[in-house]
């Protein structure tokens, strides 16, 4: 099998339902989702042997599959072809985030991205996910695409934030607060009192 086809030598690529320029917003969107997926793979490699349970690795593997689904949905220009990513994945991310928030100390101020290698990589994945989300918003202004994919990316960036804190906490690495941050987050106790 050859990896090269030469069909993109003039600046176009194939998507589900036709061909588009390689700088098309649709290609930018699913290409950025692929970039996120690569950083998730890097985080998984960095987590090997660290104090984060097997569950975290299994979650990240699930997310890698879902990111492939999301990328495929974004590459789908055919209105009669069903999307793969479902809203159950969005709900699952919310459940996992809630778990990690409960497992980590209260957060009052903004924190600096970083910590151990895996947590720092998860922060990179978080910021690239936000970029992917912005590109999907741009795509939705000009063409139809998966609304679930947009919701998924929105939750996923928050998930990466919560997980990065958990990975640091599980490995006894403290968050570093942004020194000029006001108190911007409410404690778990104040949320329960509402």
Written overview of the protein:
Keywords: ATP-binding, Cobalamin biosynthesis, Nucleotide-binding, Transferase. There is one protein chain. The protein is mostly helical and 194 residues long. The chain has a single domain (17-193), classed as Cobalamin adenosyltransferase-like (Hypothetical Protein Ta1238, Chain: A), CATH 1.20.1200.10. The protein contains six helices and two strands. It has helices at 25-47, 54-74, 87-103, 117-142, 147-170, 188-193; strands at 12-15, 18-21. The radius of gyration is 18 Å and the shape is elongated. The mean pLDDT is 89.
In short:
The chain has six helices and two strands, in the order ββαααααα. The protein has 194 residues and is mostly helical. It starts with 11 loop residues before the first strand and ends with a helix.
User: What share of residues is helical?
Assistant: 55-70%
Number of helices: 6
Amino- and carboxy-terminal Cα gap = 60 Å
Number of domains: 1
Given the helix and strand composition, which structural class is it?
mainly alpha
What is the CATH topology assignment?
Hypothetical Protein Ta1238, Chain: A
Number of strands: 2
- The fraction of residues assigned to DSSP E strands is under 5%
Radius of gyration: 18 Å
Strand order of the biggest β-sheet: 1-2
Overall pLDDT level: 89
CATH architecture: Up-down Bundle
Protein name: Corrinoid adenosyltransferase
Pfam family, one: Cob_adeno_trans
Organism: Pontibacillus salicampi
Family: Belongs to the Cob(I)alamin adenosyltransferase family.
């Amino acid at each position: 099998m050859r990896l090269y086809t030469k069909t993109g030598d003039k600046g176009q690529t194939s998507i589900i339902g036709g061909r588009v320029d390689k700088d098309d917003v649709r290609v930018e969107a699913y290409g950025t989702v692929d970039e996120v997926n690569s950083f998730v793979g890097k985080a998984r490699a960095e987590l090997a042997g660290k104090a984060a349970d097997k569950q975290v690795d299994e979650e990240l593997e699930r997310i890698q599959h879902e990111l492939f689904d999301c990328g495929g949905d974004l590459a789908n220009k055919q209105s009669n072809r069903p999307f793969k990513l479902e809203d159950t994945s969005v709900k699952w991310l919310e459940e996992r985030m809630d778990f990690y928030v409960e497992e980590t100390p209260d957060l009052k101020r903004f924190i600096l991205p970083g910590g151990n290698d895996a947590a720092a990589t998860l922060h990179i994945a978080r910021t690239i996910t936000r970029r992917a989300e912005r590109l999907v918003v741009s795509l939705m202004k000009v063409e139809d695409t998966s609304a679930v994919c947009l919701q998924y990316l929105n939750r996923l960036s928050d998930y990466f934030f919560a997980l990065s804190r958990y990975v640091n906490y599980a490995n006894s690495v403290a968050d570093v607060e942004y020194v000029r941050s006001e108190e911007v987050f409410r404690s778990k106790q104040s949320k329960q009192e509402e």
